[in-house]
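INTERNAL AUDIT FORM
Audit reference: QA-55
Scope: verify that the stored structure record matches its stored sequence.
Auditor: D.O.
Record contents follow.
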Amino acid sequence: MPQRLPVAHRRPAWIQYGIALVLVGIAYAATLLLPWSANRPTIALFYAVVALTATFAGLGPSLLATAAGCYAVATWLMGPAGELPTWEGAVRLIAFASVSLLLAGLGEMRLRRERSERALRVWNEVTLSSIGDGVLVADARGRVLFLNAAAIRITGWSAQEAVGRSLGEVFRAISERTREPLADPGARVRSSGAAVRLGEDTLLVARDGREIPVDDSAAPIRSEDGEIVGLVIVFRDVSEQRIVEQRRQSLVEEQTRLLEREAAARAEAQAANRTKDEFLATLSHELRTPLNAIVGWTALLRSERLAPEQIEHGYDVIERNAQRQMRLIEDVLDVSRIVSGKLRLEREPLELARLVGDAVDAVRPAADANRIELRYRAPDTPTYVDGDGPRLTQIAANLLSNAVRFTPAGGRVEVSLRADGADAELVVADTGQGIAPDFLPHVFDRFRQEDGSISRRHGGLGLGLAIVRHLVELHGGSVHAASDGVGRGATFTVRLPLARDVALPARRERAAHAAPDLGGARVLLVDDDADALEVLGTALATAGAELRTAQSPEDALRIVSDWKPHLFVLDLAMPGLDGHALLRQLRAQGFAAPAIALSAHADAGSRLAAYDAGFQHFVAKPVTPAALRGVVAATLRSDRAST
């Protein structure tokens, strides 16, 4: 409970009036009994009675005491026979009455002032005890005089324990930031003579050692003449306010982070849209450019007005641009497979040096045409990796094509392969235009090109290096790009894990190098596309195969009713009965000849589905005549060897 100031309680009126009469009676008896008043009555005791009554009982009892005293004094002054008092006696009586009335009035005024002060004290006490802030009052010496209920709760000191103690002991504050004790607020108030704040990082150390964040202020208490006679400290526990503020700050920070992420996502989306637009424009340009050459030379060749060497050159241009367009389409399809997670590898132990050598041979004509020196330093010992042959060749070819494309005439491209611990390390270094430092972190991003404008000097879709990174990572390896800056060349390093316990299929290696032999082989070719049927059929027929063609599964079933092929070459995507269903019907009719699947869907899922359906080989479109002849010859040899 807070320290309470004493409050006087008024006695009942009859007791106060009774006390006044009793005191007058005592004074009257004393005047009769005391020897010094035997000959001459005295009124000194009556003055004392009136003064006491006025001081402690108020106006009414003091007036009663005055009246009773006047009666007693008048009785003394009248003499035994009841004669009137003399002028001297009358003056004394009047003086007594006047002074007594004055004492009664002064006493009433003092009592009223005391009652007002007591009422004000009680009002202040009730007010201070009822407010939520802690209030602590100290005297000029810094001794605690008063604590309200909130101050008791916050400081942990009871009123009985705190009153009389030093202010610094009860209100012990430290800085939350420095952990140092704060200056005595009493000293600060006395020195400044004005209200002060103790600081925003104030921690009040409660009696039990708890540290409570408080918001506080101290102000002086002055007397009527302006002298500082004490001080009052008002403080509040701001723990919950701190928590609310921290939560609010956390919400603001979280909202700021969300806005920043939203802005970043918006910027990223806008950048992605720009990249997409640039890519689509580039794709349109890159696809139309070879088509322009193909369509143009096709029209010229039909004119029959060209010299033989021009005709040969036209065929070369058409073939080169068709190959270029095929590579572009394959890159787009590869990226689609990468994004959808459908790109799969067909792993087997492979000699990496031979695959890299094939890629070097493939790009050498382009390097020679631009007078670029192309060097290949192969390892002295075989370097086997467990991987997908075409994809490994694609990795090397993409890196080499980039190096040749971005190296000016007279430059140099160096390729090296070596075993480094448990890895094979392939390095492709060029003396070309290099890579800017700000673009280097994005060199393997999809659709990103350092120069994406329509005025760029070099073609391409910006997919090759993204495909390289994905293929390398699928093989469990890593790829790294380095450049000293624009105009200072670039170096790409690929690391692939070496194969363990290599066991090579020797028969497959021999078959890969054997020349096609289709003489006398009966081949049934089925494809719903007339142009594809014509070009593929011509490729097989000119290699010596006895060929029958069908443009629908129904035609194929009629042909085999009176003709038994040695080999089936079936397109998978045909209306109605597809290649898988056609092969099942052929097997159901007793035809056990091997089958080759043709499909423009070259993903791993399509390959696995073909093998599950019973096909011995899978050939992705587009396919060159030489490649088709090689697969057909290898399949026939394998079938003969197994029988």
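Auditor finding: record pair retrieved intact. Confidence is low (pLDDT under 50) at residues 1-9, 452-459, 504-515.
Action required: none
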